[in-house]
Each structure stands twice: as C-alpha cells, then as structure tokens.
Design brief:
Strand 11 and strand 12 form a beta hairpin. The chain starts with 8 loop residues before the first strand and ends with a strand. It is built from ten helices and 14 strands. It folds into two domains: about 120 residues, 3-Layer(aba) Sandwich (Rossmann fold); about 150 residues, P-loop containing nucleotide triphosphate hydrolases (Rossmann fold, 3-Layer(aba) Sandwich), CATH 3.40.50. The strands form four sheets. It has a five-stranded parallel β-sheet. By secondary structure, it is α/β, with parallel strands linked by helices. About 35% of the residues lie in helices and about 20% in strands. One of its GO terms (molecular function) is ATP binding. This is Transcriptional regulator VpsR. Pfam families: Sigma54_activat, VpsR. Keywords: ATP-binding, Nucleotide-binding.
Length: about 300
C-alpha cells in the first residue's frame, strides 16, 4: 500500500496474483489496500467504509461462496470483478458477477481502462452518498454525548451501519441494546424499510410470531423484508431455530420445520444479556458465527 497526500479514493483488492496495475492507481491518487484473507478483508472493509472493491478471481484464492457472502454483506463498496477469459464459461462465476458486481474485467487490463472505470465508479459512489445523505447518521436514538465510551459506540454504529453484515449486541438488561439496533437501522440504506423486533422466547418453530399493531401471526422474516429483523435475547432461541439461524448465516437460506423455504432479504441483528463465553459454554450458540459484535458493558 502506498499513501498519497491527495487521496482520490480508496480501493480494496481481494485475492489475485501480482497486481501490476496498482502502482498506476496509486500514482493517480488512489489509496490501495490488498487482502488475501477473508476475515482480514472483512475487518478492513469495516474500517474503510464506502469504497471501490475489486474481486480478483484469476488465482482462485477463495471459495466462490465465501467471497459472495463477504461481498453481499459489504454493500458500502461498489464491486468490480477481475477474471480470466476461460472463467466466463463458468456459470457460477457469471452468476456471481451478475448478482454482486457493477462491472467486470478480463485479464490483462490496460492501466487506462482501470483508471477510467474505477474513476466512474467513484463518481457513482459519490452519487449514492447524495441519494442516502443520512447514511451513517443515527439521529435521536439515544447515542448522543461526548464521553469517550459514547464516542466509541457512535463510531462502531456508524461503521456497521454502512455494511449489511449480521450484528450481535451484547449487554445487560437496560443497557440499550434495542436502541443500538435501531440506530444501525436508521443510519443504513435499509432505513426506509421496516425494523421488526421479536422476542426470541415468543418465536415458533416456523419463525412465526404475533406482532403489533394488528396482533396477527406473521412470519418475522416476511414482515422484515428489505429491512432489519432484531431478535431479542439469543439465549431464548429454541434449538430448532438456532439450527435455522446457523444455516441462514452460512448459506443465506433455510427450510423451516414445516418445509417452507426461507431466503430473506433482511439485515439480522441479535442481542443477548450474556457474554459470548457464557453462551458457548452453555451450548447456546452451537457455533453460530455472528460477523460483528457490539459490547455494551
């Protein structure tokens, strides 16, 4: 990575071989990062915020499912794919490009083409910031204050709001876990869609629950479609629903106990008053992997 006193934009490159085109971008004013590890890339994207991302598939560094999950969670980036000509005959790779990328290149790519295309995507990123001017702003959700602890929380919420990854909020009763979830929702691109709160103890095996204001029985995933589903107190989730949640986090879809296929478009935020160590020791988490966590302790 090379820094430039006048940074034009930030570029994150995932995978690939020797990126001979990166120096030209750095010389043009781009701040470039590269990662060959998905976990490290997740942390990097969370810290970076809105940026341009390049998925270099030419060296098969990652499983396509793994990289698809990362790209889907990090919608604050505009993603480009770099592939070999022969990979365009692979249906799975073509599907990945269509589903998750705004454009693609076939290697090798002239430096001028990189500069032109990535420059255009920077312009699109700036337009998105105009369309969603409240992205990263959490209004009056109780997260005001100048104390160091509150400023740290504000920073965490702002970073997480600009992604679409699942979140676990940790804290004792009364620490404001739902307020934090609402702040993430309000500061995200899902702010205009529903925020649905569900007590895990009330959930049935088919993920249905009685919800206000009509007090009718609804599938919580359908009710929260395009928005945020907040599951309060993970420790009270039934074993069957824990297994469903694990499948959802791993493959973004699952079948309920009654056979209904669920493939929701929701942002998942869950909370608990217990520590991760307590949940794991009790067997509650069952290896459920929440990507990001916010401790309110």
């Amino acid at each position: 990575m090379k820094t430039n006193s006048a940074v034009l934009g930030t570029l994150v490159v995932l995978g690939g071989g020797e990126c001979t085109w990166v120096p030209a971008l750095e010389n043009a004013g781009w701040l470039c990062h590269r990662s060959l590890d998905l976990r490290a890339a997740e942390r990097l994207l969370l810290e970076t915020g809105p940026c341009i991302g390049v998925v270099d598939l030419t060296r098969d560094n990652f499983s396509l499912q793994g990289i698809a999950g990362l790209v889907n969670r990090n919608k604050q980036a505009r993603w480009l794919a770099l592939v070999r000509d022969d990979q365009l005959r692979n249906d799975a790779i073509c599907q990945f490009i269509v589903n998750f990328c705004v454009d693609y290149f076939t290697a090798p790519v002239p430096e001028g083409q990189w500069l032109k295309t990535i420059g255009h995507q920077l312009g699109m990123l700036q337009l998105e910031r105009r369309v969603w001017p409240e992205l990263g702003q959490f209004g009056q959700h109780g997260l005001q204050g100048e104390q160091p602890a509150m400023q740290k929380l504000q920073h965490q919420v702002k970073r997480l709001a600009m992604t679409d990854m699942p979140v676990l909020v940790l804290g004792e009763i009364g620490t404001g876990k739902e307020l934090v979830a609402q702040a993430i929702h309000q500061a995200s691109t899902r702010a205009k869609s529903a925020f649905v709160t569900v007590n895990c103890e009330d959930l049935e095996s088919d993920w249905c629950v009685v919800l206000p204001p009509d007090r009718e029985r609804h599938c919580c995933f359908l009710k929260a479609e395009n928005g945020v589903l907040f599951l309060d107190e993970l420790a009270l989730l039934s074993d069957a629903c824990q297994q469903d949640l694990l499948r959802l986090l791993e493959s973004e879809a699952f079948n309920t106990a009654c056979g209904r296929a669920i493939q929701p478009n929701v942002r998942l935020i869950v909370s608990t008053r217990y520590t991760l160590e307590e949940l794991l020791e009790a067997g509650t988490l069952r290896k459920i992997s929440i990507i990001a966590s916010i401790p309110l302790r």
